[in-house]
Amino acid sequence: MSRIEGVLKALKEQGRKALIPYITAGDPHPDQTVSLMHTLVSAGADIIELGVPFSDPMADGPVIQLACERALKHGTSLRQVMAMVKEFRKTDPDTPVVLMGYLNPMEAMGYEAFADAAADAGVDGVLTVDLPPEEADQVAPLFADRHLDPVFLLAPTTTDDRIKAISEHSSGYVYYVSIKGVTGSATIDVDEVAKKVAHVHELTALPVGVGFGIRDAETAAAVGRVSDGVIVGSVLVDTIARHQTDPDALRNALTDLLHPMREALDGLAH
To answer: What CATH number does the domain containing 64 carry?
Structure first.
């Protein structure tokens, strides 16, 4: 059982929901990423999604685009991101880390070399935004052989056949994008999400994490009620942007944002 599966299974047994924050590696500075990862865990994160900065993040809105720019300005590379995970693992052997990014940097490194490096660093899952499941045939086995969970995105427009195809290539969890469009946009329609997640559950045995549009404890609880976990990205990255020059204030601000979400999600279990 992978670390991701273990964490999600334990949460399910406790009747609890996963809190999955996203930050971009290297933002606001590569030296701060590992410390911020530990801050997220202290504030209640169950799994961390760590973004690999890329120069053309087409699925992301301006908030995460700017985070990529800040990270790339400091020269944050895929190999550096692996080194951050390795450093994080020295003091946290338990919290799963999912690398989230685009195909290009992985292709440039070579899929096999990437999979080896990811496994060696202690990465648990890989979410490639622009890898369609039809093309995952060659890549997914490389990940599976090294106990890396391939995680895929589902959208409101994803057809049933495609959901089934995606779940065949996936392990760990599937990431349901609750809003059409780019990250950080629009407000979330919880009733619509509830219907779609229930439908996804009929087609896959995997846990369903929901992202896009979760901004505070209230939206986290609303989405947690109808899913297996909530994925929080843009609002955290925006907080990093606002406090990028003051590491202590940044850590406090992230905790103040995430901890109430954790409490709201745990409140659902009672």
So the answer is: 3.20.20.70
